[in-house]
Amino acid sequence: MKQVYLDNAATTPMSPAVVDVIADEMANDFGNASSTHTLGRKARNTVETARHTIARAINAKDQEIIFTSGGSESNNTVIFGVAEMRQNIGKHLITTKIEHESVLRSMQHLEEQGFEVTYLDVDSDGHISLDQLREELTPETILVSVMAVNNEVGTINPLKEIGEIVKDSNAYFHVDAVQGLGNVDLDVEEMQIDFMSTSAHKIYGPKFLGFLYERDGIRLPNRIYGGDQELKRRAGTENVPGIAGFGQAVAETEEVAKADLQAKYTEFQKIILSRLDQSGVAYEVNSPLTGLVSHHVLNLRLNGLSTYVLLANLDLAGFAVSGGSACTAGSLTPSHVLTAMFGADSPKVSESIRVSFGRYNTVEEVQAFADALIRVVQKLQARQRQD
Fold first, then answer.
1. Are 191 and 163 in contact (CB under 8 A)?
2. What is the CA radius of gyration of the chain?
3. Which positions fall inside the Aminotransferase class V domain (predicted)?
């Protein structure tokens, strides 16, 4: 049975061209990028070419891009680095209640060290209040960390407006753009972003690789000590094949108009919701369908049915979806995102699934999923009535 993959917010399949680039690099470009001989210089050129491609995609300078192991490392590097180097200015940080766990748990650890963290509220669409952000900023605030696109409901934060607010304070502005890169336009200059975290495997690239954008003129303390790799900011031999694949993946995202991609995902959402309406299945949409939202995520509550039962039955039917963030998928803890949006007592936190689309998904796959979802829901509801 062919598995239909609709969990692209968790990870994406690698682009065939990315696979080819990585395989070619592994076979033919095995030199250490820090070596001075011909093979080393060839590897260095591969790394710097990818760095330039990535920098250009977000309107950054080449030297502002640091390759890391992914979004979690980049987020940790920024949060702990800023806390370490700026605690003489203040010990207050601001983030939101619906950030990725790599941000939230880092902030919680800082709280244990005596720092103060403000967690901004969100409304039922997952949006923060800019007025609350203004009110919470103080002269002691050293960092504002807000994600570009939420990984569970697709909400887009108004980064340009946030950047305007933060620039007049003592704080740096950090953006977790793991779900944003490839889905929305990102410009670090226009948005006045100081740090940005990304991950290659969310844009059809390899796992365990990302980059950290660090604005020119800011120098975070090193988290990994050793050699002088990555402009002396992150020790460790560069993963040249992976970096080459990351550059290819970013180049491919730049070839696809974001508006066209969003239109495609919007059509996918309409197909699912239309078929659910026709079937009479009781459901609610948790993610916003209009406004500031990336339509690659559709979060649905299927009334009265446990998330875990739904996921198991859909998996058996050949469809891969999730209950929320992949980083907490093995936990029985309800979604902190849906809890922040709707309250801990809402049934949505335990009766919802996340369907997330990618550029390789087809109309036929989405139609098949909608039909399978209806069959699964109707079967489970009939079983409930019998019980």
1. yes
2. 22
3. 4-369
Q: Residues 63-87, buried b or exposed e (16+ Cβ, 10 A)?
A: ebbbbbbbbbbbbbbbbbbbbeebe
Two structure tokens written together for 382: 């009939």
Write out the E strands in 272-339: 283-285, 297-302, 319-320
* C-alpha to C-alpha distance for 186 and 205, rounded to whole angstroms: 18
CB 324 within 8 A of CB 335: yes
Three-state SS string over 98-155 comes to CCCHHHHHHHHHHHHCCCEEEEECECCCCCECHHHHHHHCCCCEEEEECCCECCCCCE
Q: Quick: pLDDT tens for 144-175.
A: 999 999 999 999 999 999 999 999 999 999 99
Q: pTM of this prediction?
A: 0.95
341: three-class secondary structure by DSSP: helix
Geometric angle at alpha carbon 297, from 296 and 298, rounded to 5° = 125
**Residue 326 pLDDT:** 52
Residue 387: predicted pLDDT = 67
Number of residues that this document lists for the chain: 387
Both tokens assigned to 304: 């009265």
What's the N-to-C CA distance of the chain in angstroms?
31
Q: Which residues contact 383 (CB under 8 A, 6 or more apart)?
A: none
Catalytic residue among 292, 327, 368, 380: 327
Query: For strand 92-96 and strand 172-176, is the pairing parallel, antiparallel, or unpaired?
Result: unpaired
pLDDT in tens, 329-363: 455 578 999 999 999 999 999 999 999 999 999 99
The backbone torsions φ and ψ at residue 47, rounded to the nearest 5 degrees and listed phi first, read: -65, -45
1 is an active site residue: no
In angstroms, the CA 323 to CA 320 distance is 10
Q: Which domains does the chain have, with CATH numbers?
A: 71-197 (3.40.640.10), 257-386 (3.90.1150.10)
Position 325 pLDDT exceeds 70? no
Strands (DSSP E) along 273-386, which ranges? 283-285, 297-302, 319-320, 352-356
